[in-house]
Structures are given as structure tokens and as C-alpha cells.
Design goal:
By secondary structure, the protein is of the alpha+beta class.
């Protein structure tokens, strides 16, 4: 795929529509053996060796189930000001979240629930305008999404936020937002969508296509008449400010509760 073709694919995938697709389509196309509640899986991701890029034991099954279709920024050597810079972002994030402990205020402020009727481990309330702004610059006061968890006592309990960045952003630019020695951004890569006559493959126990599929190269995708994309959507990162242990604030595990 040449640069022009790839860019033409990226442009429509902005705002609420694309992020709803991320969390909606991924859930809806998860085969029975790859649900969000399953146990951890293991495997290497193209372009990186998990053993050589930091401790991945904290990766949740939601992310692990997409092995081969997720790229995570490698951990960088720590610079003197990194931790303080990250703590400042977390503090601003936490202050912003106070208003949205009542999820109805999030709805009033323009956040939209992605797939509210679908049972999910974590619900994303997405803000269209904040998504567009995040493509241009980083403002911790304007999360792309608020992350809620349903509990027996509270319908939506706020536990964190998601920030995004332009899909063309470099890792140096991501490092300026939140130091890569502290946190790891991720993006979805090497996705092969099924041809129209084979969409049922998404729901099989061992799919070839989609976010959970075995196909992760352009050659294999073309051989199966699929639609291949080397990378999709935006850069993403989650922050859970209520975690008492700072190393869990940037957790890669969205399947466990981050509210206590």
C-alpha cells in the first residue's frame, strides 16, 4: 500500500465514529475463544520482542488476545525529569476527572458512550471534539475518552481516562506528551479485514481476519482476498490516577478494576 492510499484510509477514521469502531468492532468481532474475560495469552508482536521490551506480565487478556495486531512503544531510558513530568500529567488528569465521577455530567459535556448495550469490562465515553484536538496537541484537561466500570453499587464508576494522538505522530512526539520511560503508548497494526463473503470468520474460535485473527502480513491477507492495513486508528494510552501504586497508573490491563 502506498503512502497516498494509506493516508486516504486514515482520514475517515477520526472522531467519535472511529473510536466507537475500535471498541465496538473489536468486541463484536471477538470470537468465543478470544473474549475480554479470557485468561492471558502469550506470543510475540511484530516489530518487537516482549521479553526485551520491559515486563509485560501486567498486560490484560484484552490486549494479549490481539497479539500480532498491537504495537507498544518500547520503554526508554529514564531521564532526570521524566517521573515528575508524568506525575504532573497524572495530577492534572485526576483533577479533571473529579467532575465526571457523576457520569451524567460527562454526557452533558459531550461525551458519548461507545456501545452502551454491549456488556463490557470497561466502558469508553468518547468526546468527538477532544479527539480532533488531540490530533494537534496534548491537553490533559481534555481526555479523548473517560473510562468507566459497572459495579453492583454504581452504574458507571469512573476509573480512568484515555488520551490519543495523531496516527502520524512520532515516538519522540509521544515522549513529549508523556515520557516513554514511564508509560507505553499503543496502536493497532497489521489488520486484515475479511472479504464480504467471509465475515463469519470473525466469530470462529480461531479466526484468520480482524483484530483477533492469525493473519498479520500483507501477503497472507492478499492470498485470502482480505483488506490489509499496516496500521489503523490513533495512538492510545490509558491513565488510572486512583491506583495507589504509581507503576499501575499506566497499566496495560483494562480487564481488572482500577478503582478501590
Amino acid at each position: 500500500m502506498n503512502e497516498k492510499q494509506d493516508r486516504s484510509f486514515q482520514l475517515p477514521f477520526k472522531g467519535t465514529v472511529v473510536l466507537t469502531l475500535i471498541f465496538g468492532a473489536a468486541l463484536l468481532t471477538a470470537p468465543p475463544a478470544h473474549t475480554w474475560q479470557q485468561g492471558p495469552q502469550h506470543g510475540s508482536m511484530p516489530g518487537m520482542d516482549m521479553r526485551d521490551n520491559g515486563d509485560m506480565s501486567g498486560m490484560g487478556p484484552s490486549m494479549a488476545a490481539m497479539a500480532g495486531h498491537v504495537y507498544m512503544t518500547p520503554l526508554r531510558p529514564t531521564q532526570a525529569s521524566d517521573k515528575e513530568k508524568a506525575k504532573a500529567v497524572v495530577a492534572e488528569t485526576k483533577a479533571t476527572m473529579e467532575r465526571y465521577k457523576d457520569y451524567r455530567k460527562a454526557l452533558l459535556d459531550g461525551y458519548v458512550i461507545a456501545n452502551p448495550k454491549l456488556k463490557q469490562a470497561q466502558y469508553h465515553f468518547i468526546h468527538n471534539a477532544n479527539t480532533r484536538e488531540a490530533d494537534l496537541h496534548f491537553d490533559p484537561r481534555k481526555p479523548t475518552a473517560l473510562l468507566y466500570r459497572r459495579t453492583p453499587i454504581q452504574e458507571y464508576k469512573l476509573e480512568g481516562v484515555m488520551y490519543t494522538a495523531n496516527p502520524d505522530a512520532t515516538e519522540d512526539e509521544l515522549n513529549e506528551r508523556i515520557p516513554l520511560s514511564i508509560a507505553r503508548w499503543h496502536r493497532h497494526i497489521n489488520v486484515c479485514w475479511a472479504p464480504e463473503d467471509r465475515v463469519g470468520d470473525y466469530q470462529t474460535a480461531h479466526p484468520k481476519f480482524g483484530m483477533f485473527g492469525s493473519i498479520n502480513t500483507e501477503e497472507a491477507c492478499k492470498a485470502e482476498r482480505g483488506d490489509f492495513h499496516p496500521y489503523m486508528f490513533t495512538w492510545m494510552i490509558h491513565i488510572f490516577p486512583y491506583e495507589p501504586d504509581f507503576k499501575e497508573v499506566f497499566s496495560m490491563n483494562d480487564d481488572v478494576a482500577h478503582v478501590h
